[in-house]
Automatic annotation (TrEMBL):
CDD domains reported for this sequence: ABC_MJ0796_LolCDE_FtsE
Name by which UniProt lists this protein: ABC transporter ATP-binding protein
One GO location term (cellular component): membrane protein complex
Keyword check for Transport: yes
Lineage of the species this protein comes from: Bacteria, Pseudomonadati, Planctomycetota, Planctomycetia, Gemmatales
Amino acid sequence: MSSPILSVSCLSKTHGEGESRVQALRSVTMTVEAGEFAVLMGVSGSGKSTLLNLLAGLDRPTSGSIRLYGEEIADLDDDARTILRRQRIGLIFQSFQLLESLTAEENVALPLTIGGMKARDARHRAAETLECVGLAKRRLHRPHQLSGGEQQRVAIARALAIKPAILLADEPTGNLDTKEGERIILLLKDLVEIQGQTLVLVTHDPSHEKYADRIIHLRDGHIVEEMLQPRNNNRILPTAWNRLPIAA
Ligand SMILES: Nc1ncnc2c1ncn2[C@@H]1O[C@H](COP(=O)(O)OP(=O)(O)OP(=O)(O)O)[C@@H](O)[C@H]1O
């Protein structure tokens, strides 16, 4: 049996003030269940990134509630949101945001050591996670020695290495060609199906819908359609590590 990991209620966000004021999200209510692959679709400007940034704690809503495992995160202060992102939320962006001076393994290990893990343990966890995304043999390469798809795999490993409660991916295939992009989506799908990872994916690409359990369409900051698709295999529920309470 699955349970909601993320519950969003009446979430609104207004950017800017006066004449440049834009209401990017209007009273969005949605849930994502543990171990689910949710896709957020919508044309440019529909509010997808605004919503993902709020879920990630990168920005604060104008009003409304965001609960992660029942704990309210919408009104956390800046420090608490930083801790939330470091410990509980795996973020993947279109631009891979890897540090060029570091190897793949060092890039993956860095957030772990920043979070207080011993360097040796962090390197071990990084190597393990890179193996899980198919990059065991490339772990000592620097970003410029890797293809775009491989760099995105490193970024996915970096997001996974903290053992996040939820993975949030904003257009992760946007900088990749079709073939590499498809491989990345299949990797994300496997993380959901094989490891029980919970994923929210923002995408423009309707071909990604076929992998999703839940498809949410946004238009002008509203949810205009939500669909659930049955999955053929049994859903794997998250393991104990990604059900831990959010540390403050
Ligand atoms: N920081 C900001 N300041 C002012 N307006 C913003 C800001 N961020 C987003 N907006 C506006 O909010 C609306 C929603 O933008 P958002 O980036 O969330 O949409 P999106 O669906 O992710 O678009 P895209 O697919 O192009 O990334 C747009 O009208 C956008 O111009």
